[in-house]
Amino acid sequence: NIETYKFNTNQWYRLRILIVGIDSHTSGINVGFTDDDNDTNCKIHALAHDGIYRFEVPKQESMLQYPLTTSSRLDAAIQCTYSSPGSSTTKITANDQTIGEIRILESNDNQAATPFENETESWKSKRMEYIKDLQELEETATNLVQPTMKLRVDETNINGISQGSHKPLCNKNTKDDFQYGTVEEWKFSGVN
Length: 192
Prior knowledge:
Shape: extended
Distance between the termini: 46 Å
Radius of gyration: 23 Å
Order of helices and strands: EEEEEEEEEEE
């Protein structure tokens, strides 16, 4: 049994796809949207990955294939167009195996909702402080980290400190720890 979604023609929908891998030998899953002619009557635009909006929302180009890791999430805006009774179904696939389908209804009950601004333009997402875009950060003496820090990651601890609810890994009161609101930059040595 596969899941069937019924979409009204030309109406925008938000679809959230969650991937949870149970096979330790699989590193990625390719999620696709297609019909029997390896095409589709749908436009699919990425909105967010793993719950974090893209910098430009939605992605301007429509895509039919999305490579995902075995533990990830994709939020997509989808608009499908009804063409004819026999060809108005789009398959949702994972590694070329059908896992669901979208049935496009001929309904003219369209809503004006759209993920675009002014019907065609993407918009810039706002970021919370702890996930802000650092690409345009100016390099000044106040945000560059000058000192070095030794970082040793073991199986159960970082720098010999184990995590626990009573003792977080990030503590503003220690000099060898990460601090909120700073940019950390490291050069790794002894790694390939």
